[in-house]
């Protein structure tokens, strides 16, 4: 039984096709993303930009001169020229440049968004291809940050504010006295004017967690938090906000993190980068460098989150279907955006989707004639939830509720419900599957059986993603709501 969020629970219609080849379920890079293995390193030497792609020993390719700063995001490379023009290319290192804007003092990019901070302090963002229209955001800005789902600014008065969802969403003020703002997945980090660092995760209303004092640079990337201290020491933590710092190297002016790569620009202008996360070996890259940037394939493309093979390994061949395989890329993309990257978060996510929809993006509530019946990966249900999704995404789910079960929306809605409508990562972090169940909202009449079944699915996935065993004593996992 797939029990969900209405008063009676429900059965989801299923057509199970056994024997689909798992080799056909592998993901490839989508537009704007780097393919697996195609890491990039960029350096600015003088006013000349050089980029390499592949291993740490790949050959540098000269991109452009007359550059004052640059960004690399996915397969896009952007430069702010010395005459304040924004040029962007996408695809290979040999693609042509496209002029995007003039009169800029800074910019930011993701694989699907470009943000422009003009010399007058106004901000505009475009979403989609390089020829999309700019959408005005706000004024009086000194710092701009972007992710695929969030836009963040620091105003001239030091107030940090973030919006989530579509480019017309409302701003949510975060905190004042901010020198620098960083966004990554579901995390928001601030370097304050007094040198202290605070980070929050999940939704924009979460509580702040103090990280470190005496900091001159903050870097967020996936599950990594990195800081460069005022004394030049670069140190990084991975995992929860309470993880232990691991010192990296001294005499650093700037640090970059992308995927499992960490790079440092030292105070003497030399650059070193390492693969393998916190404990990898450094490889020297370049001298005489002014700026360093790293880009990595999305974790989904690198297979870090969940694959169709994972689901079959955990829950059996019933999930080796073409429909399940078709939804995997979008699930991985939204897991990355939501910070669902640790074993416990991934386990809570897949266990929930197993019981909600059987991992089918197009799942619908069987036997229900209701206009706002359960649909999609997480079974969006009831008019108030369809209305909230409409307001968040700027798409009319009220008049077109069937769109919630389309592949272009199903995973996005699941991510939104998981992190915006609810704060489900917080329950997953403390191994509280009962708390996950409360947030999802299946009917109490189904308990305790439903909660115990979901918890059993969670434990299976948790052991799998943790390398074969549970990371905590089984008795410490809360199953009941």
UniProtKB/TrEMBL annotation:
Cell cycle recorded as keyword: no
Domain Glycoside hydrolase family 19 catalytic: 367-428
Keyword Signal set for record: yes
Coiled coil: none
InterPro entries: Glyco_hydro_19_cat, Lysozyme-like_dom_sf
Keywords: Signal
GO MF: chitinase activity
Signal peptide, first to last residue: 1-31
BP-aspect Gene Ontology terms: cell wall macromolecule catabolic process; chitin catabolic process
The protein, known as: Predicted chitinase
């Amino acid at each position: 039984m797939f029990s969900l969020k209405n008063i009676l629970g429900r059965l989801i219609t299923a057509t199970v096709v056994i024997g689909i080849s798992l080799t056909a379920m592998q993901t490839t890079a989508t537009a704007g993303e780097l393919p697996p293995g195609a890491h990039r390193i960029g350096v600015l030497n003088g006013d000349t930009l050089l980029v390499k792609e592949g291993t740490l020993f790949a050959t540098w390719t000269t991109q452009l001169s007359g550059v004052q700063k640059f960004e690399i995001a996915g397969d896009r490379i952007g430069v702010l020229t010395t005459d304040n023009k924004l040029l962007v290319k996408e695809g290979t290192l040999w693609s042509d440049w496209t002029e995007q804007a003039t009169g800029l003092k800074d910019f930011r990019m993701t694989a699907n968004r470009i943000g422009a901070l003009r010399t007058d302090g106004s901000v505009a963002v475009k979403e989609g291809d390089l020829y999309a229209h700019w959408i005005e955001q706000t004024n009086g800005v000194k710092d701009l940050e972007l992710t695929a789902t969030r836009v963040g600014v620091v105003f001239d008065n030091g107030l940090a504010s973030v919006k989530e969802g579509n480019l017309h969403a409302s701003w949510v003020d975060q905190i004042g006295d901010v020198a620098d703002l960083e966004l990554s997945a579901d995390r928001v980090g601030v370097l304050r004017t007094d040198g202290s660092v605070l980070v929050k995760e999940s939704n924009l209303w979460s509580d702040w967690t103090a990280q470190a004092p005496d900091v001159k640079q903050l870097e967020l990337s996936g599950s990594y938090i990195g800081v460069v201290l005022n004394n030049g020491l670069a140190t990084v933590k991975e995992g929860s906000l309470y993880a232990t710092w691991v010192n990296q190297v001294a005499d650093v002016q700037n640090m970059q993190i992308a995927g499992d790569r960490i790079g440092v620009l030292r105070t003497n202008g030399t650059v070193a980068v390492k693969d393998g996360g916190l404990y990898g070996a450094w490889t020297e890259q370049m001298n005489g460098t002014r700026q360093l940037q790293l880009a990595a394939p999305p974790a989904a493309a690198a297979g870090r989150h969940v694959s169709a093979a994972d689901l079959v390994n955990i829950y059996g061949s019933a999930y080796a279907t073409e429909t399940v395989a078709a939804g995997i890329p979008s699930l991985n993309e939204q897991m990355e955006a939501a910070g669902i990257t640790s074993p416990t978060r991934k386990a809570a996510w897949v266990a929930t989707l197993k019981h909600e929809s059987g991992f089918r993006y197009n799942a619908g509530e069987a036997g229900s004639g209701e206009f706002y019946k359960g649909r999609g990966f997480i079974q969006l249900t009831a008019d108030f939830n369809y209305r909230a999704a409409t307001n968040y995404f700027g798409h009319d789910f009220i008049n077109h509720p069937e769109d919630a079960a389309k592949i272009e929306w199903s995973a996005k809605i699941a991510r939104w419900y998981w992190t915006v409508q609810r704060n489900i990562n917080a329950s997953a972090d403390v191994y509280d599957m009962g708390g996950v169940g409360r947030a999802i909202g299946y009917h109490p009449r189904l308990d305790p059986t439903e909660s115990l079944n979901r918890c059993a699915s969670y434990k299976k996935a948790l052991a799998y993603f943790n390398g074969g065993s549970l990371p905590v004593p089984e008795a410490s996992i809360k199953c009941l709501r």
